[in-house]
Amino acid sequence: MVYATVLSAVAFVGLALHELHFSAPILDLRILKLRIFDTALAVTITFGAVLFGTLLLSPVFLQELLGYNAWQAGLVQAPRGIASMISMMVVGNLARFGIDSRKFIALGFTLVAIGCWYSSRYNLQVGMWEIIWPAMVMSFGFGMARAMAACLEGRGYTVK
After folding, report:
1. Contact 108, 142 (CB under 8 A)
2. Where are the domains of the chain?
3. What helix, strand, coil percent values describe the chain, rounded to 5?
């Protein structure tokens, strides 16, 4: 297992060196020189880690510790997707009117932090609505920040 990790790291470094010195690279790493792209990429990676952690642990908590079956756990998790969908549509439409998208990213991070803080207070006597509302707040923030980070990723460079 360790050998495969080392081999992957060496292969990745080799790819990066090759692509940086090749005249027509398949993977143009020079895009990482753009600060706005780096910022959007960092936001995306951070949100991906937090989103993966919360989405992975919530159903396990509901099924293993609270005794929900798969259907009940899915019903508790469904409003997360609805909140995220609504926030992406609302924020996307507001961004078309010229509102600064960085404010939405900051608000999205704040909503995610509030949702995580409320979720940290769960215990084995938590009710269904006490799980749904923090998850919806968190997902509304995820949708808001992710949609705006995707817009920022597209700024500052042109396609040749």
Report:
1. yes
2. 1-31, 34-153
3. 80, 0, 20
Residue 149 corresponds to which tokens in the numbers above? 């980070």
Q: 88-131 pLDDT, tens per residue?
A: 898 888 888 878 777 888 898 899 999 999 988 899 999 999 99
Residue pLDDT, tens place only, 14-47: 988 888 888 888 888 888 888 877 887 887 788 7
Residues, the chain: 160
Question: Residue 18: what residue type?
Answer: H
Q: Tokens in use for 62? A: 């509901």
Residue 157 CB-half CA count within 13 A:
16
pTM for the whole structure: 0.71
SS3 23: coil
Calpha distance 120→37 (Å, rounded): 32
HSE-up of residue 78 (Cα within 13 Å, Cβ side): 7
Amino acid present at 58:
S
Residue 102, both tokens: 């960085």
3-state secondary structure 84-138: HHHHHHHHHHHHHCCCCHHHHHHHHHHHHHHHHHHHCCCCCCCCHHHHHHHHHHH
